Structure formats: structure tokens, C-alpha cells
Amino acid sequence: MATIEVTGENFQQITGRDGIVILDFWATWCGACKAFAPVYEASSEEHPDIVFGKVDTEAATQLSHATGIRALPTVAVYRDSIRVFFQAGALPKPALEDLIDQVRALDMEQVRAELDSHAHEPGHVHS
Fold this sequence. Notes:
The protein has 127 residues and is of the alpha/beta class.
């Protein structure tokens, strides 16, 4: 499966599904983004069970601000609608493949339990 364009309009629909969704936040002026693009595209071809999305930060400025983008490229990974990874910087192919393996291996019940326990800590603001 090739990459899909993710915008403010379809972000919730794409990231709110079960399974793994990987997003690449990029811009046309970003040299590191251009270098990362072929690695990302190749990985999308090798993992057809994963949704690979690209967010043009110039076109989706509100989405970029809302998700906390500070540098480009930034890779965000969602599994079962929970953001489990968020990091700025282009990943070399072995690091991207290792990240995918780690996300596949996550115990999502444990992740949910940890999130739930943090939601009940003193001082936590519910959104």
C-alpha cells in the first residue's frame, strides 16, 4: 500500500482506527524530509497491513500545531488509536523497521492500563 495524504479533515478517521498507523510530518522545503521520503515509501510497500500517511505541514498547519510538531520530519505512530511514538528526525531504514517491530510487539492492554492509571493521578487535567 502506498502512502496516503493525511489532513486535518481525515486525521481522526485515520488515526482513530484499530491497527497501526504511521504518520510522516513533512514540508517541501525540508531537505531531511526529502531524504526520508524514499525510505518511508519503501517501508509502506513492505508493510501493507500498516497505514502509512504523510502530513504536509504547510497545508495542515492547524493539525501540525495541535499534534505538537516542532521540527521536521517528525514520525508519529498510532496503534489502536493511541499515539505510542512521536519523534522528530529522519529515521534510517533499519531504525524504521525496528520501530515497526517494537510497535507490533506492544501489549496494548498494558499500554491502556498505564494510560488509565496516569489519568487518575492527582493534578492530571482531563481533556
